[in-house]
Design a protein that fits this description.
Length: 147
């Protein structure tokens, strides 16, 4: 057996903890579904934030999920102007498989936001929420309501 790096072992463990937390929120043990939810919501959120704030949020995400978060990012094209819940959820839905019910986008968003609220510092959650219109802040769990 080939030894692995402590950094790699640590990020695998942290990533699995985040995925399991999301799985509990979504009621699924499917790692594929968990990653799909993280990717679609994190990309929509990342693209909605100012680049500096997007990078600050990334600093608190495990290394493997950070790779998912930054995959395909074009900071010069952000922030996008998704001002309503419908516009934001459309961004979440866009990368999901064709035929995914629209209500899945909201379910995924609420679940990912719950995991972020649980695992990211309250100060960073407040900073992220502060960049969102009230309609989008409402997708965060009450325990994260900082504004």
């Amino acid at each position: 057996m080939t030894p692995t790096s402590p950094i790699w072992d640590s990020t695998l463990q942290k990533t699995n903890e985040w995925l399991k937390a999301l799985g509990r929120e979504l009621g699924t043990t499917s790692a594929s579904r968990q990653l799909l939810a993280f990717r679609s919501v994190l990309h929509a959120l990342r693209d909605r934030l100012q680049p500096d704030e997007a990078a600050e949020l990334a600093a608190q995400i495990p290394l493997l999920l950070k790779g998912v978060y930054f995959d395909g990012w074009r900071p010069s094209a952000t922030p996008i102007k998704a001002r309503t819940m419908e516009e934001f959820l459309t961004l979440v839905l866009r990368p999901l498989p064709l035929g995914t019910p629209a209500d899945e986008a909201e379910r995924f968003t609420r679940a990912v936001f719950a995991v972020l609220a649980e695992r990211v510092s309250s100060g960073e959650v407040s900073d992220v929420q502060g960049m969102l219109p009230a309609e989008l802040r409402a997708l965060w769990p009450e325990r994260a309501a900082a504004l």
